[in-house]
Here is the input.
Amino acid sequence: GESVGLHLPTLSVQEGDNSIINCAYSNSASDYFIWYKQESGKGPQFIIDIRSNMDKRQGQRVTVLLNKTVKHLSLQIAATQPGDSAVYFCAEKSVTGGGNKLTFGTGTQLKVEL
Amino acid sequence: AAGVIQSPRHLIKEKRETATLKCYPIPRHDTVYWYQQGPGQDPQFLISFYEKMQSDKGSIPDRFSAQQFSDYHSELNMSSLELGDSALYFCASSLVGELRNTIYFGEGSWLTVV
Here is the structure.
């Protein structure tokens, strides 16, 4: 992934609303995808993952959708809370292709308004 | 649960000095990854190791080197430091062969070059 500079895309939502964060990935060989949450000055925190043999996976308040045809990934957060405010990254990896490189997409800043 | 441990958390060095960052992966994890993240930027992959052997190489400068030791901890050595090396450096670990190969990150080491 290339550096994208200092201006992250921002999504502002009201507390209690649902949030949808989108991500486009580039490598058609990628078969494993992870969403991370990163708070300021902290390490990326694992949220949810999905393998390419699935279209949808649900966790607690979060759902990841994968559309391999258009190489698109989305993260849905239900009933968004102030504590969800952070930068969210999608990341892709080729597990079956071997190698150990996780490539991050452009982060999205989620701001939850009270 | 044990997480990825990085040290030091903060480091201040002068230009042209050398710095060493350490990473202790989650117990039983056999793969370590190093990332560099500038302010407002996506984490950039530097290098990874699997079973003490270099696995993948990303945008790691020639001035940097890394290795994974017999106890699976890893060190990132940075020489001839430049102002542009100031960043948050993350280490992550995973267990190859685990079905989902989930990758977990440490809290990072802040390097400031003055």
